[in-house]
């Protein structure tokens, strides 16, 4: 249940904390107080009369909901603002392969508008016999490459035991699609204050991904963005997954977290990455995360879906142009989507 | 198998016709001859030596394939050019409700860039007890409204017995998603020369829709466009279907037919129609088909997904602006997608 | 709305017919009267007081629902009883290939417990260039083969124009999965009194198939059975479709029509047909429809999923044994499923 | 690649180990040697000539494949034999709720043929605010209840850090569907010698689950069983998931690990659990894992899908009867499925 109070009614907030804080999860955002597991009848007369509005039908993922937190969350890292009216480009190779390579890729990413460098050092591979990443050494390469070009780092953490170590190197944790419901891991990143990019699982419903994000929020970390990377459907002959463009306005309506599109994993083939990336931008996404490589045929992982530098330039130019166009035109649509 | 000849080698074409025409399906497009069910060994020496290239690995839907017909198909109706570099807006109410209403909607559609008026007179409703459409009277209203505003008509034909009658009123037949594999109906419209908009079935793979289109082409009608209207996936809580934006570049690679996006049926809710429509345009679609209504609460069908006139104006303005932007920027992506 | 009356209250039935019959769809089953599109307030005082119970929350497919028709429908053909406690085996080749072949297959089917002979004369093939069936000649062969072995015939009708002609030869119409929402065809078989086996579409929900069946019932034909033949999911590498065993008890709860399992199309490969068929029987299906062939490598269609005669014998023996076992054991489960 | 040798050719095995062991993953099963990442040309002449057969086309999950390990794996715990011709019943409540309750449920399970007691102490709940399980105390209750009735324990481990602790109490680790690709966890249980029941993820393909099992095998633990608990499809209105009965014979063909069916999570509603469980048995499963509860309305989790004791008795009686029937009848089908 959410109790909406007048602005600055700290007295009632204190009263509610005292009344319910010991036995219930209770969250406060400005003048809104969410108390889990109570009904209107549990409120005292003074609490009831202080309420401007009492909202009983709230989603399970209450902290992530617009009902509790109407304004857009804007995530501030050293080099980026993510969410709201901002548009953020993230790019880099699937895996960190060597210091020289990641540095070269950082230069390409930065030159084409990216402010966040992606790269995997711990890789969740389908087969145990595939390349599993360079580990901590890869993280060092990634960090140095990003620093050289004044970029932020986003990289995957696969394991709650690794959260502290990976956290030394990264500005944004990525939770991969396969780990979207690894609740131990979600709780672990929720105990940090490092922003998290949570990827929607291959068969996760909108409600599933919001509930997963709530595991992070429940630990106190509200710097969350949600990334769509394609879902599993009955047809994957030509694209690896089906990118669900509709999830962008749907999530923007339901949650205040920024929504990012990963067209690379959705497409699975270079030739389809740009159309899907642009579709995501046109649907209103707050950013893209794109795999790039200057020699895809020899990439250690996911080469077939990497964009060449010149292909990435084209995607990035068009993405920013579409975003500018949509931002400048009367934004009824953007509002309608919220 | 496809035999590629030198331009203007009519002699070999005649020879192939004579050799295989009685026992095999044989199709000619410029200098390309497709013969079904033969192998290289069936060719005579002179046929082999006349071939510039022999392509043995061809899709079942050979007439629709880029291998057989590399250039874009451009469909010409009285008021529209569909395909190639053109962008076509189609709009109108789900059902034709009355002559006044369809005329009013035609005015709205035309004023906002549409050249094709849509409207259903025969409605494929899930329940037999729902409104089934005005029938032929509805077609008359639709035709008059379109004529008044110099527009083309697109309307659904549900039944092979109705093809002739509906053909008197429409410029484009729509084959609905539920009828995508109604082969009798496909053959019937294939025997006409009226353009066909074939909607992808809810669970049709890319190959399925191409094979369905081949039933039309096999009858001699090559004025085909394919419309994506969302597919069935595991999550339809917030959108009615999942719009598969990736199918746009995939189809553009595989086939020469124009690809149209129907964001209304994909979204199922007004607030998500515009983001999905724009995503389709950014993915490269040749046009949109959109449901509009000036009083959705009282629409006889599908009101919840209809755009109001002012919402349609916003979608249309942004759609044309994105299309212009993409067409004017260096089109490496468009080529890459083919 | 359904008004439940006392047994034999013909007066109130007559009153309701007179009151609502001109403007509403109205259906009577024993002491239950379903009137579409009215509410409790529309009833007169005498109608209200005559009602034992008024059920306002009824499914759209009201005639097919257990709420309207609590007892099992049992379909009686010349040689078979389908539904209730009966178990019916249907078998035959995918296509009728020749008179000799279908006669040989009829012998195999009959010798192993089948009372219904299946075989296609009009084939809904994905590609227009594939074998489309022998047409009416095939129906003649099929009819003669069935008659020789005292069997019923089930065969697909693809087209409303063919209903009359096919009806001369068959005891049961099959509506194929691709035509499940071909409403013209459903209406056409609904106007006959020949039983119909309606196959669930590849992506049809339970509600979709029930609504499709209602198109048949709305025409006056209530001899309907529903066949599950596998649905489309994200994995079809090893089986052609995913057989939804759960649909058997779900449909048995919701509808009074018999539920049949088609393990052949679900499996797509001979080696998986028997386990799936037995799973269907154990889930409670009223019958199986199975493809058999004595030379699958040369079958004109669907050879890879056909059972050899000795494989069919094994399936049939085990199927009847499981059915007997379940019927003889205390049937709490069967009841629970309804 | 797999090199098949004569029985007892230890010399060639030693030669292969020496030749490839330092640089390649190499696995030996009786007379079969799998070496990852080599081709026929990498073999020496003596290795080639010692080979009875060289199999180059092997699946990524080589240790789990029938190609490498043709015989059924049979898992031996203190009270159970799982796999081969054995049939194993596992039952218990979703969550361990109290010592009295789990003990009462153990009595019910044992009295009806179960030799393995299930119960969750760490619960992977969709929402962070739901009951998360009793933790280690729950494991103690579970262990004592099982010991009192001479049963084995199966319980979920959610976290690699918990593997050691949970391992003190359980005979079989359960890896839940949401963690099927939590590779850190898979590796951790792979380092133990405690049997593992790996649940197929909601959208995991057959290949995905086999590759996940290989993470366990790669650590040296080959006591693996795979459990089907329903997959996500487009229709979950009446059942929670779609049970894929076909996966039983498919997995039995591809892998030597026992296949278990969990009808409770597939059904999601008590009334559909028994039909689905029996379908799994008829499809050939080596066992069932079933949720039971004597007061479902007050269960701390998943009450709506729990069987009452008398319902479980009926399922168990029928399941063993069907299994006996199938085992006693000529087993061509079972062989065909392998």
From TrEMBL, chains A, B, C, D:
Its EC number is 2.5.1.54. Transmembrane segments: none annotated. Residues 74-316 form the DAHP synthetase I/KDSA domain. The keyword Transferase applies. GO terms for molecular function: 3-deoxy-7-phosphoheptulonate synthase activity; aldehyde-lyase activity. The keyword Coiled coil does not apply. GO terms for biological process: aromatic amino acid family biosynthetic process. Keywords: Transferase. NCBIfam families: DAHP_synth_Bsub (TIGR01361), PRK08673.1 (NF006421), PRK12595.1 (NF009239). This is 3-deoxy-7-phosphoheptulonate synthase. The lineage of its organism: Bacteria, Bacillati, Bacillota, Bacilli, Lactobacillales.
